[in-house]
Amino acid sequence: MSFEHASQKTREILRKCLEGEKPSLDEMTYLLGLTGRDAIALHVAADILREELVGDVVTYVVNRNLTFTNVCYKGCKFCAFSVGERSERQYFYMTKQEFYERITGVPWKITEVCLQGGIHPKLMYEMYLQALRDIKEIDQRIHIHAYSPEEVQDMVEKSGLDLEDVLKELKMAGLGSLPGTAAEILSDDVRQILCPQKINTSRWLEIIRTAHELGIPTTATMMFGHVETLHHRALHLEKILSLQQETRGFTEFVPLPFVYENTPLRKFGLVMKPPSGVEILNVHAVARLYFQDDLRNIQISWVKLGPQFAQVALQAGVNDVGGTLFEERITSSANDGRYGDFLTPPQLHQLILDVNRVPQERTTLYEPVIRDLNGNWHVMNLVDVFASS
User: Fold this and answer.
1) Containing domain of residue 12, as a range?
2) How confident is the model at residue 314 (pLDDT cuts 50, 70, 90)?
3) How many domains does the chain have?
4) For residues 94 and 68, is the Cβ–Cβ distance under 8 A?
């Protein structure tokens, strides 16, 4: 691929990436800021590498978000979702019965539950564990994707146990994987502006590393497009890759463009516009070129960007479109639910087909899923592969 319409510097970096060499920190920073034909060349290079690494299959998971509480005392300036217990806005804590109604009320048999919530001052350690047991009691097969490093730190502080023991008990109670959220930007100067009461960069990395060492996989995320610089974004990617090369515990990387409308950052005048579409595509494309074979799954957040933008991102290195969700309160609080809070499996299937890619349902851990006519699911094995060939 010549990329003849791009600048010489861009051509040289992209050729190097397609030959299997990772861009340097300075080169990543440069690529993240590209515009015009140079940006198009970047997106094409990422798409070429995507095809080489994972082919034309685009994956999705049939999951169900459960937002168990909206109470949080951390006061993050990027958040439009959380409330205090004395807020005029209604606050809630989800009960076991509500868990049951939401899980069994979905018209498709889900393979994953994703727990989301705030740091509730009255939510004790045992309650975190009990939520996992309650879900497993409803359906033992469901994979529980729950509790960010910030929530894990809350459990450590409330229980008096050390980090390793907390994670072991969570795993015994039914935890399948951790979301790699609460990462925001892994640079403490940025975190001091965004979320000064949350864990710092080194603690986030320590919690994730410990989870990986105990056999608990996690996702990796980056919330970008607020007060950080391009260099901060590159540093964040560097930290994720370094940990992945050490533990191999990340299942996917999920860039999260900052949704700014109803957040304190906008009210304070610190952020007055969202990241541009080109910026967003650049982040996904650079992640593909940088992580290469070390982290193969790059996911687009359709709930933040919409289904049509997700289709565009599939041309820039992305190979996963996330999940059905069936409930989404955090992003919706920031953008007034612009793109809704669920897509059905047929809708996700069609979204992928419309850009000439191959849809494949997956588990949380990226195992292919097949279903019978009644919607019952199981993980595809070699017998299934040969039977369908």
Assistant:
1) 8-53
2) very high
3) 2
4) yes
